[in-house]
Amino acid sequence: MHPSLQIANEIIQRGAAKNPPRYYTPMQLLKLVYLCHGWMLGLYSRPLIQEPVQAWKYGPVIPELYQSLKVYRDAPVPCILPVHQPVEPLDVYESTMVDQVMQMYGERSGIALSQITHAPNTPWSRTFRGDTLGSVIPNELIMDHYQQLYRERTAHAAATS
After folding, report:
1. Which among 95, 85, 1 has a CA at the least distance from the CA of 51?
2. Are 32 and 113 in contact (CB under 8 A)?
3. Measured between alpha carbons, how far is 31 from 109 in angstroms, rounded to an integer?
4. Nearest-CA neighbor of 149 among 58, 48, 54, 35?
5. pLDDT, tens only, 49-65
6. Of 1, 83, 91, 160, which is least surrounded by CB within 10 A?
7. How far is CA 112 from CA 10, 28, 32, 47, 115, in A?
């Protein structure tokens, strides 16, 4: 498992390496890191990030990452974020997962990504209650959701080929 800041930095670096460079807002980074974590759980049954994901009013949030990003408000994050702990390099599966999530979702706006993570029957919608702040979204719930999404996409692809 990795700090969410490390995964955000992977996304920032990969975006900056594109031609033309692509920069992401805090909302996009929060959602993309969450999607990387979700798909990692769904496909490999192991978490990508070490921090818990919480159900906030406006969607799933990794509080530590949010605190590092909030200074940028709605502006694209222009640089790598400081990570104040040792980090291990991503393994091939983790790196590939970040690439795949970037390919599937990396060009979407923050609003479009929010619509994905806030949809009915998502882990966020099943956890968030308006009267409670910061309920943890269990990794098991996230894993079940992304495993189901994978099964649905695989069945759809098989039916259309």
Report:
1. 1
2. yes
3. 10
4. 35
5. 999 999 998 899 999 99
6. 160
7. 21, 9, 11, 24, 5
